[in-house]
Specification:
GO terms for molecular function: actin binding. By secondary structure, this protein is of the alpha+beta class. The chain is built from 17 helices and 13 strands. The radius of gyration is 29 Å and the shape is elongated.
Length: 492
């Protein structure tokens, strides 16, 4: 499940329009229009029933492409305002894009034009239905873009002078965007639906333990804010290194902390604007000094399951004795998988299973299980994490790559990334073929490859590996590099 609309308790019926507020002492764009509008007519800055024939702002003169887009933008606003109740129930992304797309193009040259058009249509608007819909659009705009200083002053005065309840919301939204920075993509259609129906948007988030929970997301929600809300809800002590990931098809990409949630969704939807099927996951991205037992909630919900999956995939080098001890702990920690003796694949890495007869596995696991019979599930998870945390591959992200060109490395290999640097691991033996500290490397990627440049004294070596995961590898390295750079800054 993805985004859902959550109906809040409210006293009014959402099928009825908000009562029209009087337009007493409302601030208008008259003063701004005298300096910056092309037309000096009074109708230039107040409600107009008919379409405009040219953009409002004088700066669009001699720019026919922008003029045409400004006229089309106003036409789309008028179309939105005249939508029937039936059409509003099935509003599409294209309806929103036809209004907002142009304001995000060409260095956002038309964002002030859009502000002017909406405030113009809200000034002395005689029709309550049209006014309500104009407020919907201004609500969306104030949660995305901020006009230049000269116009911003008039926008704020307009919002503060209006008695419409939506005005205060718009004012608060524009203050938040001023503080956090503008969005880079137009509003998502579900933001519009939420405003129309006066409901909250909730996003389902999937956790490593297999459970899911929904969280409120707003137009102004950034990834870092969503992560903080999740940690607060789950009583995880620190959000450092934790991230939300967006999964589409076979790829899972972390949403940058400073990205707006809806910007990232719209960006991945692409230029064809097809419906995006996705899942949001909450996981640990950076494993920096993660000590099992220091945050038992994070251990129980996140760390244990991420490390368990890597262990069972055979990504750690370990012995049969290690596997016996860990199988007993897994049986205690992750109930519902059956008994280890009869279902080894759920408890032991595949590459180790054939190293001994099943009867020997069963006997050894049974003996260890008896020794930990009285510990709790969470204690078993913590003990599992403490066991694997002694390995050099603990907290490592693994990316399998087929190497067909670089003679220095094995054909089947993993690029392993952790807080200490980048390691090249033989996929068969689990032995490291090379280790590189972050200060010794440069890197880049494209859609089909990952380039690693290694500085060894006066010598530099360049390696190119074929992979479609290059952007994900590069992003993770950059995150670790960023943290490393912060740690190396002197304290004054």
């Amino acid at each position: 499940r993805g985004l859902v609309l959550h109906i809040m308790k409210r006293a009014h019926n959402i099928s009825t329009e908000i009562e029209q507020q009087p337009h007493y002492n409302i601030h208008t764009l008259k003063g701004y229009a005298e300096k910056f509008f092309k037309s000096t007519k009074i109708t230039a800055w107040q409600y107009e029933k008919d379409d405009i024939k040219a953009g409002l702002l004088r700066k669009l003169d001699q720019k026919p492409e922008l003029q045409a887009k400004a006229v089309q933008m106003f036409h789309s606003i008028q179309q939105y305002a005249k939508m029937s109740p039936q059409d509003r129930k099935k509003i599409q992304q294209i309806d929103i894009d036809s209004i907002f797309d142009a304001a995000f193009e060409k260095a956002k040259a038309l964002k002030e034009e859009l502000y002017c058009q909406l405030i113009k249509q809200l000034t002395y608007c005689p029709d309550i239905k049209i006014e309500t819909r104009m407020w919907e659009l201004l609500w969306l705009l104030t949660g995305c873009l901020v006009p230049g200083k000269a116009l911003l002053q008039h926008v704020q005065l307009f919002l503060r002078s209006s008695s419409n309840p939506a005005a205060l919301e718009c004012y608060n939204r524009i203050q938040k965007i001023l503080k956090q920075g503008e969005r880079v993509r137009p509003p998502h259609v579900i933001e519009c639906n939420a405003r129309i129906n006066r409901v909250k948007i909730r996003q389902y988030v999937h956790f490593p333990n297999g459970r899911e929970h929904d969280f409120v997301v707003e137009s102004t929600t950034k990834a870092i804010e969503l992560v903080a809300n999740i940690c607060k809800e789950l009583k995880i002590s620190s959000s450092d290194g934790l991230s939300v990931f967006l999964e589409t098809g076979k790829k899972m990409v972390s949403i940058p902390n400073d990205s707006y949630f809806f910007d990232f969704l719209t960006q991945l939807r692409g230029h064809d604007k097809k419906k995006l099927d996705y899942k949001i996951h909450f996981k640990r991205k950076l494993w920096i000094d993660i000590v099992p037992g220091e945050d038992r909630q994070a251990d129980a919900i996140v760390h244990f399951y991420q490390e368990k999956d890597k262990y069972l995939l055979g990504l750690h080098k370990c012995s049969m004795d290690d596997a016996v001890n860990l199988a007993a702990l897994l049986a205690k920690a992750d109930r519902g998988k059956g008994a280890p003796e009869s279902n080894l694949a759920n408890f032991v890495p595949e590459f180790l299973i054939k190293s001994a007869p099943q009867s020997e596995w069963a006997k050894k696991i049974y003996n260890v299980s008896n020794q930990i019979r009285d510990i709790t599930d969470d204690d078993a998870k913590e003990k599992f994490l403490k066991y694997v945390s002694a390995w050099p591959t603990y907290g490592t992200s693994f990316y399998q790559i087929k190497n067909e060109t670089e003679n220095d490395f094995p054909e089947d290999m993993f690029i392993c990334i952790n807080q200490n640097g980048i390691n090249i691991m033989n996929a068969i033996t689990k032995e490291y073929a090379a280790k590189y500290a972050y200060f010794n490397i440069n890197h880049s990627s494209n859609a089909i490859s990952f380039l690693l440049e290694v500085h060894l004294g006066r010598q530099t070596k360049k390696y190119v590996f074929d992979t479609e995961m290059g952007d994900i590898i590069e992003d993770l390295i950059d995150e670790y590099l960023s943290v490393t750079a912060q740690d190396e800054q002197p304290d004054y």
